[in-house]
Every structure is written in C-alpha cells, then in structure tokens.
Amino acid sequence: MKITYLFIATTLFLILGVVGCAAEPIPAPIPAPAPPPPSPATFTVTNLIITPLIAQPTETITITAEVKNTGGATGNYLAIFKLNDEMKAQRKVYITVGGKEYVSFQVRGGQGDYFASIGEISAGYTVLPPTPPAPLPRYDPPPVLNYPSQPYPLYSDDLRRRQQEYRAWQTQEALNRLQMEEIERQKLRYQEEEERRRVEEMMRKYLQ
C-alpha cells in the first residue's frame, strides 16, 4: 500500500514539473547590432604629368593626372582643369572602391610660362615664342652683255656646245628616220617583186 502511494506521488510530481517547465516563457533572441554605414567616396589626385614641358606655339600640350578612390563607396569625381587659376575645362569620371582612373586635358598656343592644375596639384610648362621664318636666299641674276654688233646676249661656250650637241642629235634622229623609211620602202618593193614572180609562175604553169 505504501508503495502504491509513493508511485502516485512521484508521478504527480513529475507531471507538475513538466507542466511548470512548459509554462515558463521563452526569452526572445537578442538582435545583432547593425553594421556601421560605409564611408563615403574619397578621391585623391596624384601624378600630374605635362608633356612636353617646353613647347612650340603650334604644339599640343597634354596634362594628365591620376585619380584614386580611397573611400568606402563608388562615386563620380569631377576633375576641374585650371590654367593660371582660371578654369578651362572639367570632366567627370566614375571610380569604384579602391580603383583609379586617369583624366587628361589638352591645350595649344600661347606664349610664356603657365601653371596647370587638376584638383589640388599643379605643375608648370613653358611655350616658346614663335620662330621667325628663315630669310630667303638672295638671287642676283648674271649680267647680260650686249654689243652693238651682236643683237642677242653673249652666250657662254658651254651653252653653245650644248646647242651644237642638240642640233647634232636632231640631225642624227632625222637621218635615222630617213634610213628606217628607206628600209620600209625596200621591204615593200621586195614584197611586190615576190608577188609578181609568184603570179608569173602560176600563169606559166597554167598555160603549159
């Protein structure tokens, strides 16, 4: 009998303990802290290069700089080009986080010393004055000697010799043409003679 009471009491104790544990509220999970927002895009301009540093007035001068994004977000950088503290042009470039881009500007003409800047860095260059054109060589024509007994200018021996050679060449060319014409006439006469002989031979055979 005592054993039965003990078993019933133990069973009730276990049932009440389970019900009591189920009734206890479960604590809500603690949310994780939100990550800090990324830092904005930050740009750094370096390595300003000017080519050439000394130029002629007709040469084109190129100014180039390197722009890096050292911030935590991508963004657009507005590169402003100034010449002697006067804005001449601007250009926008898109740069990713940790990336870099190159911006270039070109100028031409002027004279003297100039300071070019992109962002916070600057450098100088020089444009030389225009070079004067070289003087043309002076040409003095040779004097022409005229004598009362000679109506034409006095020619030099070299010019007279050239004229004689040209006349001789013309004469030789004329002779060559005459010879070629004579050869053609002889060939024609020979062909006519051969044709006449062939006809006579045919007539002789026919009459026989």
Tell me what you see in this structure:
- The protein has a five-stranded mixed β-sheet with strand order 2-8-7-4-5, with no helix packed on it. A three-stranded antiparallel β-sheet has the order 1-3-6, with no helix packed on it.
- Among the domains are: 43-127, Immunoglobulins (Immunoglobulin-like, Sandwich), CATH 2.60.40; 154-208.
- It contains two helices and eight strands, in the order αββββββββα.
- By secondary structure, it is an alpha+beta fold.
- Residues 18-23 have low confidence and may be disordered.
- The protein has helices spanning 2-23, 157-207, and strands spanning 43-51, 54-55, 60-69, 75-83, 86-95, 100-108, 112-118, 121-127.
Tell me the layout of helices and strands:
Blueprint: H1 2-23, E1 43-51, E2 54-55, E3 60-69, E4 75-83, E5 86-95, E6 100-108, E7 112-118, E8 121-127, H2 157-207
Parallel strand pairs: 2-8
Antiparallel strand pairs: 1-3, 3-6, 4-5, 4-7, 7-8
CATH class value of one domain = Mainly Beta
Let me know the CATH homologous superfamily of one domain.
Immunoglobulins
| Total E-strand runs | 8
Mean pLDDT: 79
Strand order of the largest sheet: 2-8-7-4-5
Largest sheet: 5 strands, mixed
**Helix and strand element order:** HEEEEEEEEH
Instruction: Examine the coordinates and then state which fold CATH places here, giving the name of the CATH topology of one domain.
Output: Immunoglobulin-like
Strand residue content: 25-35%
